[in-house]
Amino acid sequence: xxxxxxxxxxxxxxxxxxxxxxxxxxxxxxxxxxxxxxxxxxxxxxxxxxxxxxxxxxxxxxxxxxxxxxxxxxxxxxxxxxxxxxxxxxxxxxxxxxxxxxxxxxxxxxxxxxxxxxxxxxxxxxxxxxxxxxxxxxxxxxxxxxxxxxxxxxxxxxxxxxxxxxxxxxxxxxxxxxxxxxxxxxxxxxxxxxxxxxxxxxxxxxxxxxxxxxxxxxxxxxxxxxxxxxxxxxxxxxxxxxxxxxxxxxxxxxxxxxxxxxxxxxxxxxxxxxxxxxxxxxxxxxxxxxxxxxxxxxxxxxxxxxxx
Length: 308
Known about the structure:
By secondary structure, the chain is of the alpha/beta class. Helices cover about 35% and strands about 20% of the residues. It has nine helices and nine strands. α6 (about 195-210) packs antiparallel against α8 (about 260-275). The chain is globular, with a radius of gyration of 20 Å.
């Protein structure tokens, strides 16, 4: 990756990974820092499946390359194993780790598992206690901080609300303290290395996650079959497939007289138009691929590849 010159001697740059159990708000925090939607969010856990790289640049202070990872959890299938392995790999090659947790004074096996992984990483760890907007009293927060201090010797602990933006500036300032001096890795107008096709696929998957029954979401993937600007017109034509594991799921995704699929398509089209800055003509299909989450070939086909 080429560094970019033209920055002062006090300019810092480095890589930071955001980890945490599923559904603690990692993608919400990253979207808040970057100032636009890159990672998909939903109230269902395990929304993020691939590592997503985004870039925050402050012309005076420096550049942070964030790696948003899938939540660390107990894997139940090959897709789950891929997600956990992706999350754990990112800890080795970064300058700092942001560990996001929820405000609680009960620390379960999942958090203790993450603490054990971090002890092997030998990297500065900043604890972000997210969702402080849900905490009624300040003294409760102090109790939660003390509880987390018992499981790990954190370099810093920052209470924040990614949803409302509270103390997000403090998180950025803290991260810069742990980065080395160095050049830009990306041009200052870069916010992600994700291709538009991949972001569009994720946006469709997000709208499906938000609209569907609880039993369907984890069994879906989205592939973009075609994404092309229409000749002579400011319209992007997109053809995409929602992949599910069962015929019964296909019926739920399509809905009565196609109503559910239409809802997913309408909501996704609105987001994709904001992304590409053009009108979008979106066509969706639903395909059944039995047990795709346990097929290495299909996982690779749908974009879930191990880092090399």
